[in-house]
Amino acid sequence: MPAGTEVRAGDAMSAAGSANSEAETRSLVAKAVKVYVGLLLTVYVALLYVHVGDIVRFFSHIWLFGPIGVFGAVIANSTGTGGGVVFVPAFNTLSSASAMGTIPMEISVDPVKTIGISFLIQCFGMSVGSSVWIDRFFGSGPPARHEHIDGYTFIAVVFAVCAAALPSLLLSQYFLFASVDGKVLLTAFKWFSLVLGMVLLVFTWALKRIKPSRYSPSFTDYYWFLGLGAIGGVITTFFSVGVGELIAVYMILRKFPTTSAIAVAVVVSVLSVISGVGYHAAHGNIVWPIALTAVPGAMIGGFVARLFANWLGPLWLKTFASLWIIFSSAFLILGPSLGLLAK
User: Fold this and answer.
1) Which residues constitute the domain of residue 258?
2) pLDDT top residue among 77 and 53
């Protein structure tokens, strides 16, 4: 057999082996995603069993949080912006209704509890959303080489961010969170969200012509991931959002694919809220009937978010998210003076 023929045969065998290996990996990822979602549903059913009585008792007052959960999860999982930018304004409106005497005090929500509830809802909604993104990129979805970064890079970026974000979040919770006044916390959230929405809107249109051209981080990028993770962990402690937004904006600025930036932001966000939700459960910061009413909607929203993101497109998706954040923040700021919210 000629030497050239042997080389071509060897290359063909190598390519076939590589394809088989990738197929096996994608099959394994797809199965792991299904198992994780199954475990998530099991946890929800267990929590529902414990609190179903309270849910039924207050359902006429809290049913609206089901569709709010859908909306919040779609925003969170299609843009990388934490669902807290939807949930916290909604919970603050509920708190105002409680103060005005229109709903029972048993389900009143103060600013601290809004953070705890938001943490729990995001644990479920963004878990589903991250599972969908991972399955699309590395599981049962068709390969799309130039749509996203490879699996090893994805894991490395998530690990770098979480290596700094999770310790900073946990330390902030146990040493700083309890000392913050609830009203100060809510005021800070309002202005943080307003600035965040404006920054996202400006960057969205200023960089709309920039095409993705980077698929592997440099050493400098990893230093930025660590630094932004540490800062984002602290911000997430107090607002239930932050770390995902910082990472998404940075990756988009660095010309990584938008879908990769969103997927990394969603995964980092859900790992952050999962690591911090125990604190809120232990300190009674979760109003379970409200949270568990919103969770099914959040899981549905997490499932359809990627479809919504693909349908709307990166530009209008980020524009929509930015405008929602701006208007909801303005509502929180101006609502009391207009008589729409309790002062």
Assistant:
1) 30-338
2) 53
